[in-house]
Amino acid sequence: MDADAAAEGALFEVGAPASPRVGSLSGPQHSTAPLAVRMRPRVLDELVGQPHLLGDGSPLRQLVEADSPMAVVLWGPPGTGKTSIAKIVSERSNRRFVEVSAVSAGVKEVREVIDEARSLLARSGAETVLFIDEVHRFSKAQQDVLLPGVENRWVTLIAATTENPFFSVISPLLSRSMLLTLEPLDDDAIRTVVLRALTSDRGLGGALAIDDSALDQLVRLAGGDARRALTYLEAAAGATTAQDETTVTLDLLEKVADRAAVRYDRQGDQHYDVISAFIKSVRGSDVDAALHYLARMVAAGEDPRFIARRLVILASEDVGLADPTALHTAVAAAQAVQLVGMPEARLSLAQAVIALSLAPKSDAVYQAVDAALADVRSGHIGAVPPHLRDSHYGGAKSLGHGSAYSHAHDDPRGIAPQRHAPEVLLDRSYYRPTTRGAEADYAQRLQRIRAILSGD
Q: Quick one: three-class SS letters along 98-123?
């Protein structure tokens, strides 16, 4: 199993039975348990990277510390704390805890859990916490079974998902639940997780250190996923100990991770140099170079939302109306990044990069809006022509507002000869289309329109 696969499987038993598990989420944390399991937060204050969820009186604190019954949907990327929150509830709550995996459980198992919880509540007043991992894998029928238990509070539901719940969770269940969004962990949070694991008695107990270059690379490899960071750290620690060393180095980390370090500082020159080369490669229609720089950013853990934003900007700045679909493609890629996350979103980013690289190029949109802004900022404004002013209030007609306006739809050409710009701008023409791609059609159309507007 490679390190990524191990990271994904580190928190759950392989081949777990289909029946629900009752009790603590992961059982005893023995010395041979994976490092990611041993280092799971035990209390909310050990949870890192989610400050928006940890404030006093927050729903999460009410769920854990006040033992308040509620239904919660935890939405976030892998390794951001969803399972950790469920474990904290399981250990801090006085309620019975039942875990159901949406991968293996069916309607029958879910209904049995709900019925048993209802019976237990009626007999003894004891409450049940139901944790469902990967709830997006439940069918609509399976999610429907949860509704009575949630609505009547026979169970306190904690449902975890990496998928957008507005698409993957039925509306009735979502409307009855508190949605808590977990963000990808930033670099500082990942560093905190790694350094804590190095020193904690539950982790490596201070037996090993890590040099700065290895720590930086580990943070990049983690990609905002604490579980992945700890899995790589555990593998690197094993290799370090096997060689009778006491410091995890970059060379050792690269060997166990099977990935070469990508020299890329998200806050330094490399960040700006690579994104600059990326944009200029797309603008220059060099699709292979553009894909190379995209790969460097993805491999280094660059925020995919940042890459997507740059593509959206580039679609208007460098392609424009030479290919009117470019902006649609870039926006769709940005939405896909938000919807599916990494690593799958790399495909959407690559599709947009290829499309924009191969598209005909025009900066006419960029030049047009900046030329218009330059005139406005320099005082070339002028009064709105009287025939274009609002004529819907009393007395407007007597001022001549709107009286000479020609309605475009009344002209058989769909364009009425009249002046729209202020008089001081009559000699200005901001949009100057190229003859590349679809913009050639816009250029011909614009020539005809300007001739009609001027009365020629």
A: EEEECCCCCHHHHHHHHHHHHHHHHH
